[in-house]
Predict the structure.
Amino acid sequence: MTQAPATSKVWFITGASRGFGALIARDALLRGDRVVATARNPQTVVEQLGDHPNLLALKLDVTSETDAVNAATQAVSRFGRIDVLVNNAGYGLLGAVEEASADEVKKQFDTNVFGLLHVTRAVLPVLRAQGSGHVINVSSIGGYASHAAWGVYCATKFAVEALTEALSAELAHTGVRATVIEPGFFRTDFLNADSVVSTANRIAHYAESVGVMRQLMADANHKQPGDPEKLASAVLKLADSANPPLRLALGADTVARVQKKNQAVEAELQQWMAVSMSTNHDDVAV
């Protein structure tokens, strides 16, 4: 077991070979923390982060529950504990809800939802036994407000939001915290072909909605407003917080979208209030 200062954190990060995962791992290592960085091919992690004494690069395909359990076991064997779990692994599916095949939808949920659950279930017993820890689940602006052409992807991120909200309540008395982060559009490789999969089926009737979004995404690649380096710094601040939030919006575009949706939901609630309130039994006081 590697010895480290008492204030040093142990991170367990999925999807750590590139993007947000690699940047968070890098910054954690730079400040003296220990990092378990996982990927389907752990060599890609080493190529990104180097051969660091505080780094444990592990094979983890999040769709494999066996991989998740093995990685958590190796993490504790090496570093003795886990303080921060970052469920970062995932990808996007671009296409209309009707265009998405059953197989494409299943693969999307297998990684973004069931993969997150595999890893969370593998790590939570460690955190609960410690009486401390922080689960940070990476959602998206699309986890709070859905968009045309992103329906299936957003459905997975809505699921991540719901799971995190429940986890936060379930774990509150244990000393373990749960936060869902909601990045907007950041200048990563997310819109590259190896991070976003387009549906094989294309339906002409969706040209004015989904087709427009496809072109917007192609034009926006590597021009997104968010700075990934600053996101990594924000996640480290989040992990250091004694009172972390349930949700953390990251990016001015996410903040604007959250505010717009909240206003729209409140306006619609008020517009239909009479109907909403009319459905109780008559003997129930309102």
